[in-house]
Amino acid sequence: MTTRTLNLDDTLYRYLLDVSLRDHPVLAAMRDANRSHPRASMQIAAEQGQFMQLLVRLLGARNTIEIGTFTGYSALAVALALPEDGRVVACDISREYTDVARTWWDKAGMSHKIDLRIAPALETLDALIAEGRADSFDFAFIDADKTGYAAYYERCLVLLRQGGLIAVDNVLWGGKVAQAPADEDTAALQAFNLLLRDDARIDLSMLPLGDGLTLARKR
Ligand code: CA
User: Fold this and answer.
1) Residue 203, CB half-sphere, CA atoms under 13 Å: how many?
2) Rg, C-alpha atoms of the chain
3) Which end of the chain has fewer CB atoms within 10 angstroms, the N or the C?
4) Integer Cα distance of 57 and 72 in angstroms
5) How much helix, strand and coil, in percent to the nearest 5, is found in the chain?
6) Model confidence over 1-22: pLDDT tens digits?
């Protein structure tokens, strides 16, 4: 018996998926299609998508934000878990990737729940704040440029209601965060992780799920 998190080998990971993954056919098709994508690692893992769906349902979420949409997997996972009047404000700067995302959202019948904003995410977030949407979002997912994380997090804290949840992806960064920073992204993630550790505005948990997922609940 160990008190620390298990290191999953391929066999145990396969078992975890076999006994717990409840797949949606469009999400499964997206993962298949994405396997050949040169930036495939930007898509979250199947069990992480399912975990985020559980969080969205636990929160009773209606209004959600995503920063970093890529080809649309996580936005679709969240949209599928939202009630019919729920919405994802999806922020990305790439029309090329999000054009692919739209075709998947259409296939799954979820396009009406996803409000795609093609612009630097800070512009979209600041516009939402200026529109009076502070304290109105239930859930936010940050999964974009790592040097932007701290600024996205601050905006999301403003936009979230009390008790709302921010999920942040890639916080373990393939293990590089535990080593001397060799690049700008690693250094940004290290500073970000420390910022959250000492932030009294949130309740905090860092999970070794996928590439590391931090959960921050607004107090
Ligand atoms: Ca990611």
Assistant:
1) 6
2) 17
3) N
4) 19
5) 50, 20, 30
6) 567 888 889 999 999 999 999 9
Q: Collapsing DSSP states into helix, strand and coil, what is residue 4? A: coil
1 C-alpha to ligand 1 centroid (Å): 31
| Closest of 167, 195, 152 to residue 61, by C-alpha | 167
- Domains of the chain (ranges; CATH) run 10-218 (3.40.50.150)
Q: Is 183 exposed, middle or buried (0-12, 13-18, 19+ CB in 10 A)?
A: exposed
Region 131-150: mean pLDDT is 98
> How far apart are the CA of 116 and the centre of ligand 1, in A?
18
- Give this prediction's pTM: 0.96
**d(CA 42, ligand 1 centre) in Å:** 5
Residues, Cβ < 5 Å to ion ligand 1: 143, 169-170
The pLDDT of residue 1:
59
> What residue has token string 């890639």?
170
